[in-house]
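Repro case for the chain-ordering regression, as requested:
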Amino acid sequence: MPARVVVLGGGVGGTLVANLLSKRLRRDVRVTVVDPTGMHAYQPGYQYLALGQANGRWLVRDERTLLRTDVDLVVEPAIRVHPDAGTVQLARGGSLDWDYLVIATGARLAPELVPGLTEGSYEFYSLEGAQRLREALRRFRGGRLLVGVAGIPYKCPPAPVEFVFLVEEYLRRRGIRNRSEVRLLSPLNRAFTIESASKVVQPLMAQRGIELTTFFNVESVDPSSGVVSSLEGEKAEFDLLVLVPPHRGQDVVVESRLGDASGWLPTDRTTLQVEGHERIFAIGDATNLPISKSGSTAHFEAPVVASRIAALVKGSAPRSNYGGNVMCFLETGNRQGTVLRFDYEHPPAPPQPSAIWHSAKWLFNRMYWGVVPQGRLPERMPIPVPRGRSTE
Amino acid sequence: MTTANVTRSIDARGMPCPGPLMSLIGAIREGRVGDVIEVLSSDAGSRTDIPAWIQKAGHDLVEIVDEDGFARFVVRKAR
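-- result from build under test --
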């Protein structure tokens, strides 16, 4: 009888792990992906949609078309995992049995955690949000445009910095930059969570006249007066406010009592097993790992989980470990960009922004649908070590 | 040893930057004025980030205690 693997979530991680397992184990496995919508979104494209550089059709595909034909797809929310029974309860009353479970449910946007955020700000972290922001930007005739983060952790750490560069360029192209103030509100004492990346982007922000307010942890938004307030006691007036909403783990994780207080799954950093559960694995944004919540993380984690489950099914000892591999592009506007490549042992050393990395990002954007879900890219990415620094 | 009565302790050892600071910010958000929060951090960046944030946010840095391989930051929520 084939091993039964259920994968919760049809994003980049869930789709890739399902396809890899099916390819490696063939008749020895029955893989079922459970996804609430059955639609797969390329989320890094949302910011381009907001800026009028992409349309929604390019960003969303039917999940069925991305899965190998021998992978089953159930389009229905999963509402509870029963680890001891080895089952997942589904919203319409059914349930699925599993021998191995992969939780790749991603993160939930939680705007309700910040008073006034839903009414007073825009975001580019959902398809609907990006479409609303696109319309708001089209109506914008100049004024105070603030970009910020309403909670850490959030998906795609470079995104707010990228967006502030790209929106500044957008205003220039529309001829309203001289009537606008562009400001990044950072929760930290620098522009970006990673210090080496901040050292690259902050001088560029200064060159472009992008203001930076540090240690601004958003507490509330007053839509009527156009003021955003911080935990540190500061207030900032805005005409257009773009905030990354707080993120939390998905309801199925919370309901299953598998997550921590914020709904993230306590996950072993190398085996990717959910702590205390040998047959449950977690990948992507759903974990509590102290690394980027991003598609890239999920992309490099999925082969590890597929390899470990394949070994267990075959009765051998799993040997594949996740080393914290992540690779993220960071657009810096003016058709330039840089790249962040790092793992648990090697912090990123981003190169000076250039046209090469901007082009590489766009090439990746175009290639995504044909290569990433199918596992056609390398399973690891070498981390370049700057001269003078040993890998030891 | 800390002289203040710690009301909440956060073990952020092993957490990379900005984890320890964000854990402290989360505890300040949830806490009450007068609460004393202790953060244990092995990240070198905390040495500058945490005192800088406390100063900007208007809370009291009670003390920083060097321990074996980590530092103990004790903070009183002042407002």
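Ordering looks correct now. Residues 19-30 of chain B form the longest helix (12 residues).
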